[in-house]
## 1
Amino acid sequence: MKKIKFMLLAIAAGVSSLFGGVYNIDASHTNVAFSVKHMMISTVNGEFEKFDGSFELDDETNELVALNGEMDVESINTNIAKRDSHLKSDEIFNAEMYPKVTFVLDKIEGDKAYGKLTIKGTTKDVVLDYEFGGTITDPWGRQRAGLSLSGKIDRRDYNITWNQALEAGGVVVSEIVKLNIEIQGILKAEDDF
């Protein structure tokens, strides 16, 4: 029985290291979402529908060692066309001048991801909650990995300052934006490099 357990552990350790490497983000199984308070009483949700990026897992430990992502501002979607147009305008994201939002990972420490977020040409250090979802071989033999990032940013740090005061107090749009990013990647094949 001990032999079987040892063999299973050895196989698991060997399989684990097989999942190290560079992963392309699978857009059909990834969601780059945000939410913000509206008029102080409800929450508006949105997402970027077009994005690209990759991440790397260490060959030995499967720990996340690199991640970069790029979101297309023109693809922003809050399910209200008029609001989406306003978000893309020069009052908010200014999609014409700043077509991309980017994130580059600096490091992982425990359950925190440290990186640089660039919006409207302004780059700031951010700390996000990090969760590694694990690795798996899918039914077609491809290696997949999943991870989650979440946290809050102050949009004013990125020169997104548009707002209106409410007669009853408060503002139309909160300065704090919540981020919720669910990422799934597919291990690059050697001939992809």
## 2
Amino acid sequence: MTTIREIAAACNVSTATVSNILNGKAKASKETIELVRKTAQRLNYTPNYIAKNLKLKTSNTIGVIAEDMTVFNSPDIIDGITEYCEEHKYQILLTNLRLFQKFGDFYYTKNNLGQLINYEINELRSRQARAIIYVAPHVRDIKTVSSGLNLPIVMAYCTSPDPGVPSVLADDEDGFYRITKSVLKKGFRHPGLIAGKPGSYHTAERLKGFRRALLEFHFPFSEKFVYYGEWNRRTGCEGAAALMGKSVDSILCMSDIIAGGVYDWCHDQNITPGKDIPVTGFDNRELSAYLYPPLTTVNLPLKQIGRKSCEVADHMIADGENHRLEKQYLKIKCKVVNRTSL
């Protein structure tokens, strides 16, 4: 790697002159400035930003900690963060903890998870990150993250129990309210609901939206028309069998994966989704467009969550100690994606 000393020797000037020119602080002649810049380009000089940041004790870097980049929502959130950083001249230091790949579905129950997170936070601090964005695959409290870290931190698709730490989330309740309303507007009066895990934040919020839409249409809510399970196709298949036995006229699913299981059951029974029984999903996963018929679902604003998280972090950096958090939870609206399953 080319050094400033080598550029100085090639140009027959001091290392201080080269350093000042490359940092835009030089008072040298136009000829010297042009010579140094062309020589740096010819020798493929690349600034050592880490060393520079350590020396100056500051940087234009935002650290991103992703629990697992292979989980479906993480890439789009990180893409939103990256887009904002490109527009506002921030660099990104990205850490992928790979928790799902290492420990499976229930990685968040690991006893040493807090230690792993704290280690990565301290690593980013040592590299002079000016803020950290923490990205999770599903909404839950990350107890080890707090405002006592003395640098801005924003939670993307997750929360902190500390009221001083902002979170950017999808508005699950409003999203499920919208899609339930779409079903009811079509004239269906006895919708069945296949839900995820009973203790899940997403289950609770989407159930609120379902109930709100029923109330608006003056339809009673009954738990007997709700089937709880896992976030998988098997739950969709078993839920469809259970609910169809109770004479529901439509099936709303809390995820596209669950809806895929409903399709499996329908095909086994020679029932056509969308024609014989309306089916809806949630998340707008890639598979939803390739199911037959294509699945009506709700789009999660993942890229917008990433952008908003970075915008909040940017404002916290600019405000410094004067930053005052107006809202702990910033919720971004979801949109219904209309296809032929409804």
## 3
Amino acid sequence: MIERLTKLNRPSKTAFAAACAQRLSPLYRRYFGDGESAKIDTLDGILNQIWDAAKGKDVTLDGLDDVAESLVPIDDERLGDPAYAQSATACVAYAASLWQSDDPVDAELAARQVYDAADCGAWTLFPILGAVPPGTDKFIEHQPVVQAALDGIERDLLTAEMASANDGWGELRLRASAEGEAWCLTLP
């Protein structure tokens, strides 16, 4: 993946990372439910600015990766496991950082957050106590929640490779959002 990302220009890499974050944003909202609307709005606002940057609008993302990181939920037994929401905030932080650095590793790390959320969901669906039997990782990798994440990442990367801000980022965002909403419903 890093080879493909290295070939992309800064707006395309940013759009890809933003699409990854868009896929995970429903998980952040799901974690907080009706509470913490200020945090949800702040994270959504950062993601909007990242999309604007990818589209070529004159915005500054200085320090927004740090703001996103400050929104990472900590373990709170009242709300359940924060792992999905943590992946969502980390993904936004990587996308914001990418705009500053133009480093393809940030884009890869954004995609990794989507995979990590899917992996977490698959392990939750199939909990294993004790030693993990051989072949379990392949079993997890082939679960529908993981395959949906990998397929989404691949579609987003293909779009980033072939489209541009003028003809593809709006469609990319809509697709990533719709697929992220549907995918979120499949996770435990």
## 4
Amino acid sequence: MTYTILGRCQRTGRVGIGIATFSITVGRYCWGVKSNVGVTVSQAFANERNNALALRLLTQGFTARAVLQQLMDNDPYAEYRQIGVIDRTGMAVAHTGPKTRGWSGHVVGENYVAFGNGLMGPEIADAIAKGFLAEPESDLEHRLLMGIEAGRDAGGQGTRERPKTERSAALRVYSTDAFADIDLRVDLHDKAVDELRRVWSYFKPYEPYYRHRERNPRGAMGQEEFMKTLQAAE
């Protein structure tokens, strides 16, 4: 029971993932993102080795379509997986195996894959895609959050008789550095998507401050002083 948006920003080339699920600690599965390379994830009956293999192949210049085929050819349980891949050009592909549970499926377009398993129905994947596409000029992390929020608002996981809340969620975005611009996760919460938005909103003004500390440690203000500037701005 997981729903996900993989995305690439056409304007900046940034790549990232937004994910939410009934399971706990989903952030540990969503590390398949690399600057100037692409983004991938394996879910449902997740195979973490797929992420590592996909990133290696994408780094070597394989297209998203070729990578997906390799992942399926090398996995005897591919019929139990959902896999999404976006390469550095924005080519996006996905696979939903017939043995994933509940309603499972994907919506794919240039620069995005919206997909999930154990969902209320196909309208959830459609909503995730529409949420991601709603503000194409916004920062990628905001668009990814809008995607999973739209999935939640459309009904999310489970069935109409037995809906399932999101207990964990994660957001990860890379641009040009070897490390992430955004790497946030909620491992256990009764409203994990709401909490992820709250954490991101709180972190957003800190992002340039932490960058400045890295680049100019001698001239950087202390964190408590910086917090006072935020309070004054409010």
